[in-house]
């Protein structure tokens, strides 16, 4: 199964066009990842906005994902084949994949035979969409267990945000996404929010003792302006060495000198690393549309989107700290508004820092090669 972010699909194949259109628009505005429609609606959806489109159809469909099984063996319209290799569905799937199409198998889990059929589809499809009768957790658990080593995403059919929450957490990993069948705009928003929360991971933060802090002259520093509003305690992990990154606080705090800018992290000098998911990037590489990792004082992570990067010449300050025997450094702008996070989880200005103070950092073992962790020895000074 995939380790990608959890995805939210909106089922919009029933009712009149106005009803279907409202579902699609609510999905678009809420941040859903995909809509499932009938093949004749694909072009209409593309006029409403930019979103992945899955459609019930055949090899001529122009959808991003072609869904097979509805009106056939997947929903019981045709009997299940005694020999899976000779089924109607597998023939169509092979044709679609030969044409370079992404394919989803659609299965209504009526009994154990249909559960087994879903597993077989999951072994050859890119996605398998499972619709439970009265929504059952056990078949989903079985599918997750049986397909965990396959390159397939399980999309579980749900009707409420509560069902979505259970599906996304089943067997710890959960399904890769949910197909929401609801007309309620609030349910759509709640379900998207649940998916976002289910993707929050944590990074370990460690107290480090300040051992040195001093001005180092003029240099180029980077402000990362995101498309996200950050709160007290949130910022980005930045450092001059990959083995140790400092939690640099956002400008969400009010200041007597400038208005708060809760979308901004004044992150440091152009050479510094910034954590982006499981990798690091140089601050100077970031540009509009890139992803960055936002971290709070408890280590909770979420994804932010870069809206703008500002590189300007400013006075800089070296900050050095020690944690678990490791000495780490970063270089930040020398200004009152630039803050780290102390061991009490409060923002503290670099202008107020002194030797012996404790701030939060993230330590890593090993090294990085082009931003990716590798097990090798490296010396950074």
From TrEMBL:
Residues 5-193 form the 3-dehydroquinate synthase N-terminal domain. The keyword Ribonucleoprotein does not apply. Keywords: Amino-acid biosynthesis, Aromatic amino acid biosynthesis, NAD, Oxidoreductase. Residues 208-381 form the 3-dehydroquinate synthase C-terminal domain. One of its GO terms (biological process) is aromatic amino acid family biosynthetic process. It catalyses: 2-amino-2,3,7-trideoxy-D-lyxo-hept-6-ulosonate + NAD(+) + H2O = 3-dehydroquinate + NH4(+) + NADH + H(+). Its EC number is 1.4.1.24. It is an enzyme of class 1 (oxidoreductase). One of its GO terms (molecular function) is dehydroquinate synthase activity. Belongs to the archaeal-type DHQ synthase family. HAMAP family: Arch_DHQ_synthase (MF_01244). Catalyzes the oxidative deamination and cyclization of 2-amino-3,7-dideoxy-D-threo-hept-6-ulosonic acid (ADH) to yield 3-dehydroquinate (DHQ), which is fed into the canonical shikimic pathway of aromatic amino acid biosynthesis. NCBIfam families: PRK02290.1-4. This is 3-dehydroquinate synthase. It comes from Methanohalobium evestigatum (strain ATCC BAA-1072 / DSM 3721 / NBRC 107634 / OCM 161 / Z-7303).
């Amino acid at each position: 199964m995939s380790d990608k972010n959890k995805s939210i699909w909106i089922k919009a194949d029933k009712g009149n066009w106005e009803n279907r259109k409202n579902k699609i628009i609510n999905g678009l505005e809420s941040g859903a990842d995909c809509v499932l429609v009938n093949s004749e609606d694909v072009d209409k959806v593309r006029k409403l906005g930019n979103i992945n489109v899955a459609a019930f159809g055949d090899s001529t469909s122009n959808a991003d994902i072609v869904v097979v099984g509805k009106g056939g063996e997947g929903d019981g319209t045709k009997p299940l084949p005694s020999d899976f290799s000779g089924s109607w569905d597998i023939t169509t799937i092979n044709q679609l994949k030969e044409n370079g199409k992404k394919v989803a198998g659609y299965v209504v889990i009526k009994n154990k035979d249909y559960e087994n059929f879903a597993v077989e589809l999951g072994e050859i499809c890119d996605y398998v969409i499972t619709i439970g009768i009265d929504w059952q957790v056990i078949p989903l658990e079985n599918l997750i267990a049986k397909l965990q080593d396959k390159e397939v995403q399980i999309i579980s059919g749900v009707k409420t945000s509560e069902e979505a929450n259970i599906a996304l957490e089943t067997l710890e990993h959960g399904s890769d996404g949910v197909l929401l069948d609801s007309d309620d705009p609030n349910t759509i928003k709640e379900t998207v929010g649940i998916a976002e929360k289910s993707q929050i991971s944590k990074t370990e933060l460690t107290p480090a003792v300040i051992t040195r802090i001093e001005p180092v002259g003029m240099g180029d520093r980077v402000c990362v302006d995101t498309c996200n509003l950050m709160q007290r305690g949130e910022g980005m992990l930045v450092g001059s060495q990959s083995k140790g990154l400092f939690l640099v606080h956002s400008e969400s705090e009010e200041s007597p000198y400038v208005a708060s800018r809760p979308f901004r992290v004044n992150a440091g000098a152009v050479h510094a690393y910034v954590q982006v998911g499981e990798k690091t990037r140089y601050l100077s590489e970031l540009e509009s549309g890139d992803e960055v990792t936002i971290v709070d004082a408890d280590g909770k992570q979420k994804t932010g989107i870069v809206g703008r990067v500002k590189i300007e010449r400013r006075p800089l300050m070296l900050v050095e700290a020690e944690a678990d025997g490791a000495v780490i450094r970063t270089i930040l702008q020398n200004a009152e508004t630039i803050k780290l996070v102390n061991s009490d989880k409060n923002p503290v200005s670099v202008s107020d820092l002194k030797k012996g103070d404790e701030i939060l950092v993230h330590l890593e073992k090993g090294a990085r090669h082009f931003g990716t962790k590798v097990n090798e020895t490296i010396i950074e000074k």
